[in-house]
Amino acid sequence: MSTTITATLPPSSHVHADVIHRLEAGGSMLPDTPENLMQVIGIYKAYAVPMDFYWRDLLYIAERVFLKPLPLFKYFISKEYLDRHNTYSGDQSPLRVWRGGGEAHPELLEFMAKGESGRKRPRLLHHLGHDRINMEFAEACMRAMFWHVDINPKFNAYLYSDAYKAAADKAIKAYFKGNWAVLGLYKLFPDMFMEQVRQLSYYANLGLFWEVMAPVFFEMSDIYDEGGFATVSDAMDFLVNGIFAVAGRPIYHHVYIGDECFEIIPKSAGMTWLYEAALPYVEAVFYRTTPFRGTKSYDAQAQQVPGEQSDFHYGILYADVFPVGSAGIPPTLLMQDMLHFLPPYLQEYYQEYCRGEDDQLIQLGITFQRSMYNVTSAVIQALRAALYYPLDDPNPQHRQANRRFFEEQMDRLTRSEARLQDIQTADYR
Amino acid sequence: MATIVDIAVNNPGFETLVAAVKAANLVETLQGEGPFTVFAPNDDAFAKLPPNTVNNLVQNPPQLGRILCYHVVSGRWDSASLAQLSELTSVEGSPIPIRSHEPLEIKNASVIAADIEASNGIIHVIDNVILMG
Amino acid sequence: MMLTLLMGLPLLGALALLLFPPAKAKLVALWGAGIPLLWTLWLFSQFDISNSQFQWSEAGAWLPVLGLNYELGMDGLGLLMVALNTLLTWIAIYSARSEIERPRLFYSLMLITSSVISGSFIAQNFLLFFLFYEACLIPLYLLINIWGGEKRSYAATKFLIYTAISGALILISGFGLLWLGGAEDFSYAALADNSLSLKWQVLLLVPLAIGFGIKVPMVPLHTWLPDTYVAASTPVAILLGGVLAKLGTYGLLRFGLSLLPDGWAVVAPWIATWAAITIIYCAFLAIVQQDLKRMVAYSSVSHMGYVLLGSAAGNNLSLSGCIAQMMAHGLVLAILFHLVGVIEAKVGSRDLDQLNGLMNPVRGLPFVSAMLVLGAMASAGIPGLVNFAAEFAVFQGSYRVFPLQTLVGIVGTGLTAVYFVILLNRTCFGRLDSKRAYFPKVSFNEKAPALVLAVLIVVLGVQPNWLMRWSEPTEVKTVVIVPGEHNVSLRDIGGLLLGDSSL
């Protein structure tokens, strides 16, 4: 296929021309090496286990904890939500992405019971000792999506619609029924409550997004273990197919108060997984997010922080992974979570490089960065397929349009912080 | 004269579209006053989508409806008047770019049969399902 | 025998090294340095604090014709200096790279140096002291010249020349003391019992001060030091800066202040001024350095100024601070040089422009950085760390006598904070350069010396009395007069030098 492309289009003059040519040949931004494939799949598996907790707890918070004034136990997920069947795995699933069970992953349950120390302790002690899944990371992602208001226009417009306000109002009044103090507060400051509900809608949004990704990653790991993927692009294509398959999944926000269900965002609002969750997630978390507190000082007056929110570039595609390990920053929280579930082959792999076990946290962070370049490649290829033309389209103008699309995407990765060039070599670890 | 829905039902090659319109409860709407311009993907166009995509959408009528509404524009736009435009706004709300006028290309779909007149609008048959974004 | 052992044990260690294969050399050397360290600790337990005389004296005739006798003895000052020597020798050997070339020769020379330095601290005979003082040049010259870094032979030669001149000047004073003072031999007791006139005291002090001033060193006699310290490998630099520099101040206390007290009172204001200039000048030099090791080297010279200031003031408090500062300086310099050595070994550079973000918790050198912060804080005189107690005592004591020089010295501590903030800001903080940051692991063996020193720095900082109590009798003995009471003016000194004996 690549020969016909070079025959019809002159080489790109973009700084990332080699990557663009690879994308045009149906490849990924991540070079196709067995080492990269092994790393990427291994980390997907390590990511999927905590993600299985993230989505369950996000939905638990959105649907059950709701507006609890002091949500001290919001990370103490109920048994019901741990047993809740994932819509895309288990034998009851109408669209079974993963062949495994629908309940919480067994490795997750084991970790929740014993923690890093391997000793059974009350859940409160695990929580206070931070020997647990770091839900704070999931919330940081949620907040990034919530804060970057311009990337999700349809969803945000709905959050300010009358239908939404009426539904939220009903739920608030039902939730605080009989609690005159809070209801009085609600009368005085209705917008404060409304904003909290909007944030909870984003909890639901992200929870429903990750509910899809966890089984996708589990399945990819299983396929790899069976010898199913030969190249990095195979893994990317699986993601592209996954994105298309569930693109139309409804995004909704239901709240359960007692036995009653309040549909704050009903499924009939027409929110879709691809448009209202996946694409905003990629934009907010992979590209933008916010600078991490505590790793670097920024002088806003010296233009060290972009004036426009849309120019933010602190996501995983740009991130300097080396500060991982600093206390409390989201990347540390995530890497710590993944560290507990690394497949053995990845653990052995990290032993051989840099400081071995001592800097696994950073090595896996860079692996994660590679893997997210692969996911982003899948999103770019999916968008190319949905909005543009097949890679082997005979019409040169269509080819040119594809090229322009890829170049526009790569333009975002030309700023010096982008790690695209780093991940082209194996030495970046 | 027949409505947009009638034309789709009575012509071969639009079985998936008709099924989708029914599943999304849009039959009544498209039989309404209008006028509408409909970019109608034929069965081959739907067949290009991964099978799970369509199945999943059929199970979720509101979401399916949104995709379908992206193929509908209010007003009667024949190919001559489309030639004057570079963009239309769909009923769904998102813009539909017209990328080429000769031959007529609606986003990444080519119009394979233009200007099919109906009582409440006009139909252009396209060879791809177009998606927002 | 107790004191002879102090010198003999390291020598035995050096001999033992010959019996073992090179692979075992470091281990044997650690024992060779460890046993004298334990012996010193035992001496602490036996030391009689209330006794202001020299203890465990040993005497034996050697060359009575020359006035050279084998006379040893120990007071509080000697005990502390010996302790510093044995401790830092052990630390220095521990901090040596395990893959060092010709290990047996290296460790033997280290142990010989240590033995000879101990000897000079416990000698009770000026000529014996002088022999030890000169003898340690030979192993050090070899240590610098064989295992040093860039420009090592230049540095070694410079070191040799400067120190030899220093020795010659000191010898002149020594002979002057003997002949003019009318002593029978070079033993301290005999030399102390002199009846030198003030004029001669001052005249003898001048070469003595310059000689030891080279060793300390004092501006402008310091130029050998940065070259030597930078060229020397980490363990040798620790010995040089931590212990050897103390020979200079020790000599001034022992021979200047103790033996020529009246002359000292006259010279003291000049020494204090000289100390203040050294403090400020070298602090400014440290600020502009680009090389980590050079910065620490200049900081070391600057801080020796406090020792000198304290000895110049010569009262009980300032002397107690002065002796404590000698210890504190040794501990802090050793930890800083050790850490700089580790950084150089891991990162491959000492250049402040190349270093960045070493505080990074996983990929940086977090332990080394933390220790570097502690060392820098100690050096800058942060309360609760050993230097604070020492410098505070020096300032309190010397302010009464030399207020101006003391104020200048206090400004110097502020400048210390300046260059250490620069150092920490460039090396430890900021963002780790992800292009180069693939440093090897820091092993436990590289952490241990820093840990030992850090514990001492903190413990002695919180409880400085554990440091100061040993030297109290020495101070009482040394402080014969309060120099402030002599109002010696420049004109008086001039007259003195011109032979006007109206004083």
Overall description:
Chain A: This is CO2 hydration protein. Chain A: It comes from Leptothoe spongobia TAU-MAC 1115. Chain A: InterPro entries: CO2_hydration (IPR010220). The complex is a heterotrimer of chains A (429), B (133) and C (503). With 429 residues, chain A is mainly alpha-helical. Chain A has 17 helices and two strands. Helix content of chain A is 56%, strand content 3%. The radius of gyration of chain B is 13 Å and the shape is globular. Chain B has a seven-stranded mixed beta sheet. The A-B interface holds A 94-95, 154, 241, 244-250, 267-272, 275, 279, 383, 386-389, 397-398, 401 and B 49-50, 52-53, 55-57, 59-60, 62-67, 93, 99-100, 107-108, 131-133.
Summarize this structure as a short list of keywords or feature phrases.
heterotrimer; B: 133 residues; alpha+beta; 29% strand; C: 503 residues; mainly alpha; two-stranded antiparallel ribbon; 21 helices; 3% strand; globular
Structural class of chain A: mainly alpha
Overall body shape of chain A: globular
Spatial order of the strands forming the largest sheet of chain C: 1-2
The amount of beta strand of chain A, in percent, is: under 5%
The gyration radius over C-alpha positions of chain A equals: 22 Å
- Greatest interface (CB-CB under 8 A), with counts per chain: A-B, 27 and 23 residues
> Helical amount among residues of chain A, as a percent range?
55-70%
Largest pleated sheet of chain C? 2 strands, antiparallel
The pLDDT mean of chain A sits at 93
Total strands of chain A: the figure is: 2
Q: What is the β-strand count of chain C?
A: 2
**Spatial order of the strands forming the largest sheet of chain A:** 1-2
**Poorly predicted spans of chain A:** 1-6
Rg over C-alpha atoms of chain C, rounded to the nearest angstrom: 22 Å
In the predicted model, the low-confidence regions of chain C spanning at least 5 consecutive residues are 480-503
How far is the first residue's CA from the last residue's CA of chain C?
A: 46 Å
Total helical segments of chain C: 21
Give the overall pLDDT of chain C as a whole number.
89
Taken from the alpha-carbon principal axes, the silhouette of chain C is globular
Quaternary structure state of the chains depicted: heterotrimer
| Class computed from helices, strands and strand pairing of chain C | mainly alpha
InterPro entries (chain B): Adhesion/Biosynth-related (IPR050904), FAS1_dom_sf (IPR036378), FAS1_domain (IPR000782)
Organism (chain B): Leptothoe spongobia TAU-MAC 1115
GO cellular component, one term (chain B): extracellular space
Domain FAS1 (chain B): 1-130
